[in-house]
User: Fold Protein unc-45 homolog B from Frankliniella fusca.
Amino acid sequence: MAKEGVNGEKSPQQWKEEGNAAFKESDWEGAIHCYSKAIQLTKEDGPEKSVFLKNRAAAYLKMNDNEKALSDCSAALDIVPNDPKSLFRRCQALEALDRPEEAYRDARQVHTVDPGNKAIQPVLARLHKIVQERLKLMSQTSNKVAKMFEIAFDMTAERDKREQALNNMVVLARENAGSDAMFKAGVVSKVASLLKLEKNEEIFLGGVRIIGELCKEHLERTKAILQELGVPWFLDILNCQKEQQVNASQYCLQTILNTLSGMTNKPESKPKTELCEQNKNEIDTLLTCLVFSVTSRTLSGLGRDAIIELLMRNVHYSALNWAHRLVEIRGLQRLMEVASELKEYKYESAMEITDSTRSLVSVCLARIYENMYYDRARQDFISNIDDYVKGKLITPELESKVRVVVALTSLLLGPLDVGNNIVARDGMMEMILVMAGTDDVLQQKVACECIIAASSKKDKVKSIISQGVNILKKLYQSKDDGIRVRALVGLCKLGSSGGTDASIRPFADGATTKLAEACRRFLISPSKDADMRRWAAEGLSYLTLDADVKEKLIADKAAIQALIELAKTGNQAAVYGVVTTFVNLCNAYEKQEVIPEMVELAKFAKHHIPEDHELDDPDFISKRLIILAKEGITTALVALAKTESHNSKELIARIFNAICSQQELRGLVVQQGGAKALLPMALEGTEKGIRQAAQALARIGITINPEVAFPGQRNVEVIRPLISLLHPECTALENFEALLALCNLAGLNETVRSRIIKEHGVPKIEGYMFEDHEMLRRAATQVITNLILSPELVKMYEGNNDKTKYLVLLSADEDIETAMAAAGALAQLTAVSKKCCKKIFEVDTWVESIQSLLGNPDVGLQYRGVYIVNNLMQSSKEVAEKIISTNIMEILMALSLLEDGDEKVKKYALEALKSAEQWKLIKKPGANSDEENEEDLE
Assistant:
């Protein structure tokens, strides 16, 4: 008997016993929790702790968490060396992690210490074969590598052959045997030497990609490569004008960071704290080099963008702590320096930037600020920005003031609160308005942009309308198109400050339509450059809050096509304007829920009540969505989805979701790559953006065959976003659509069903089976019906719970579809599980439930009923006796004799009766009772 701990608390032994009980019930998480408690309470390393560790390892193995299983087994073996169970489980973990040589070593050790262990013998034989094959493969690979080296690094060889050899080496580097052989053969130094001399782009790219593949998920090799080449080498190859080369170099740097921090390339992957601590120096060196390079005067614009993207992609991971480190090493000042560049104004610039650089800086600054979780951290952020602004304004040069305004615009487009904080300082807005009122074209342009960016909060809009409208109107008369279009956007933004409220119009009636027409002229004019069209799109993004403008624009095919073509360029600076315009056309913006009682209270209190325009009724919205989809908006959204801005991704997801609300458009979305673009957005981004993308995927999964909508690996990747919609904070519609999509997926194959179970979807799905809402209850039951095909779920239903019993109750549900699904699940369960057959009798009303199925006028339900009874009759004599003791047999006989009855119902009714005969619970009509009595006596 296990003893209680101090003060009545459970002892480690009691926790272990509870863990064992949970393990037997297939409750792996519960078992892990109990074993962990036992480990925590056992201070000293001894045989008892070793048992807890290897038991927890067994539970981790069941959950396919092989890294943790490996760690626990190693810890157990440190305490009790050569323990057969610990060795065996570590062997299993190592094999699952594709480390067969180490697994084979442990298997041999098990055989040595426990020669009678029969379980290890097939494992030993299998691993021996794998290891021998790998040795053979390694030998062959070494020969291949040697031949490829001869060609690839021979500068006198034919170019085509060298390209092919390097491409083959990239493929080979993706395999463990190939990467090991190449690394041992000194490929790193050979590639480094090659890239110093090589001019051919394909060969150069091949060399860079080989290094990237060698660094992937191999810590020791990555450290050795960093030691040999150094971070500056990677920054050097990043510094070029060729996009493919920049992308390959950026991939290398991200792969190095992933390996050092324990991440993978999957969107949901996160750094591991212990690895980040272990490799802190290397990670910090990487960050420092990136930050100091971002302001390099010799760096290419594409290279600079790649560095900023690397920072923003990784700055939100708390384990890396890059957000706080960036502030500490004055990285914010360097980013503001980049944001202040004037190249796009045709002004001599100290740094090379692209059209997307300033937008990327805005997003990066916003991402850093988002991760300032404490007041002190936010204050440090603002102080750093303050230092930059003061440092620039302290000098008398006009250029410094212009640069401050340009950098401030980027700040307002990123962390808005910080930008507003700076704009609110004494004299700052006045300085900007003075610049706008000068005759200097450069000052006019930068001041216009800053006014536009600052017009985001209502209190700012009021002051700017009073001070700046006349200046903007004057600038709109300029002969310079660049100034005219910026002034136009400023007027558009101020004119749209009433939002979607049809009762608020800051400017005179008809003004917004005139402004929209001016934007349209800039947008579709072939003589205007891309920058003009980008500004025109931004103007429309404000004006399309007006329903009249929406209807006029949607009828203008030339303007819609111009917006779509602008989106396809992928220009980061154009993303906001184009996407927001589409969001407004689709009415996909967030709407405040209107509660009738609150409206009445507002009227009574004489508050202003927003009014919807009649052109924003559902019929008009539906028409606009169909037009946009047919004009090719999906291809534009796919191009725009590459943005690093989470806010822009949310807007893109909103448009996708609005289009997917129309059933007839979902196939078009899939054909044009929409489902593929939605998956990353459903895994990472803003909370609302993730929900919108997940709902769009759910809608696609309802209508389109999942094998077509989510081919290959995608039908597994889509599961997590769908399960995320099964949350109390999501709407009933989101819950319902997610359940329908999961139902379709669960019917695909066992891999998909296992993933749904692994992602902890079952308890969430089952929760909706208890809902009062009929549609939710029905959809959840249908998902379970398809999931029951999985042996894993059958084991769960066999456990110590009421899952099977609840299906019995649901099979008598008033809603025929729910009853059909529950009965279908029971039919499958009782066909494969004798335990579940017995569980049916634990329900007090089991007879009534089965009678309601057998007597139901719906043939589908009747068929399921006889199928269940037949399964029960065949499962065991004990179960059959319970059926016989009721009037169910009479109902079966009646069903079997019905002349106009369904043939399948008759068939299973007869089979159930035959089972009763075989168990000798009933006799055939006309059988000799004396003969039967004689047989009984024997």
Summary: Residues 120-152 form the longest helix (33 residues). The chain has 56 helices and no strands. The mean pLDDT is 85. The radius of gyration is 34 Å.
